[in-house]
């Protein structure tokens, strides 16, 4: 038994699968995956290889090669690199990795990631768990792992990968202004166990040091709280437009109508005013970490 780069185990029977299942409701994503699969098949046949032979070369079963070629399986980047070498594509198949990089994530997450990638300002309030952009990989894995009905292991890893990929927003240039307000309970709930929780708190302190990031804590002891309706978020863009979402309002869907946005922005502003300021919040997080 050996471990491959993507963390899956390969046995002698080569039964592990090099990617993720295609979402049948994601028509545009399915079309991209199908096109990539056809290219792989074309290069394999041109190289004079049967599907089983290619599978043996890569350490996968024949059926899995057919799944990728048939567009029912989204190949991982390392699979594309390996098949490119095996069929002598000279980098042409490996060059298709950006085409499948986005579609390997659920459609809703892709749409959110695109909005975040274009935003020049983000304001968010979280009351159940740490905001996705602030989560460590281990925390995110624990969070998805406790969902009910339970996600499959494959789905958990796919969702974790998508969440981690979104965090490239912190290294963008020019940097967007990012503001987060976290409910105190999200800092005290030991999701994933004590070590995962401690690392998450340490990560919040690390991120709070970035000049374009503000993290605030809403203490449970507050007598006034404008966020009792649930989590919310506002994204603003370079052209002056914006998109907001507030749990329980407007169907919990993203809205861009100025009248709806005004309500969400008003609440976000009041929440920031009611929460501890960034310096006080950092001290609060350090205190919670020190209590462990």
From TrEMBL:
Pfam families: DUF5753, HTH_31. Residues 110-287 form the DUF5753 domain. InterPro entries: DUF5753 (IPR043917), Lambda_DNA-bd_dom_sf (IPR010982). Residues 1-27 are annotated as: Disordered. It comes from the Bacteria. Transmembrane segments: none annotated. Gene3D superfamilies: lambda repressor-like DNA-binding domains. Residues 14-27 have a biased composition (Acidic residues). This is Helix-turn-helix domain-containing protein.
């Amino acid at each position: 038994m050996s471990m491959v780069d993507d963390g899956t185990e390969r046995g002698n029977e080569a039964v592990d699968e090099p990617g993720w299942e295609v979402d049948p409701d994601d028509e545009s994503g399915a079309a991209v995956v199908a096109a990539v699969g056809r290219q792989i098949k074309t290069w394999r046949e041109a190289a004079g290889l049967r599907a089983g032979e290619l599978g043996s070369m890569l350490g996968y079963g024949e059926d899995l090669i057919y799944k990728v070629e048939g567009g029912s399986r989204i190949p991982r980047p390392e699979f594309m690199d390996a098949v490119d070498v095996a069929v002598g594509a000279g980098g042409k198949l490996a060059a298709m990795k950006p085409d499948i990089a986005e579609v390997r994530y659920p459609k809703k997450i892709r749409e959110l990631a695109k909005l975040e990638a274009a935003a020049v300002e983000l304001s968010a309030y979280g009351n159940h768990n740490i905001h996705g952009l602030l989560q460590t990989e281990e925390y995110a894995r624990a969070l998805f792992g406790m969902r009910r009905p339970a996600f499959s292991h494959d789905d958990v890893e796919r969702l974790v990968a998508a969440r981690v990929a979104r965090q490239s927003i912190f290294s963008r240039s020019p940097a967007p202004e990012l503001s987060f307000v976290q409910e105190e309970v999200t800092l005290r709930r030991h999701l994933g166990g004590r070590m995962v929780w401690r690392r998450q708190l340490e990560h919040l302190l690390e991120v709070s040091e970035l000049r374009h990031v503000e993290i605030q804590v809403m203490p449970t002891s507050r007598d006034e709280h404008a966020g009792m309706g649930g989590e919310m978020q506002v994204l603003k863009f370079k052209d002056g437009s914006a998109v907001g979402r507030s749990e329980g309002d407007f169907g919990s869907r993203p809205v861009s109508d100025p009248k709806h946005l005004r309500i969400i922005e008003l609440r976000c502003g009041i929440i920031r005013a009611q929460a501890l300021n960034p310096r006080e919040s950092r001290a609060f997080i350090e205190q919670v970490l020190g209590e462990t």
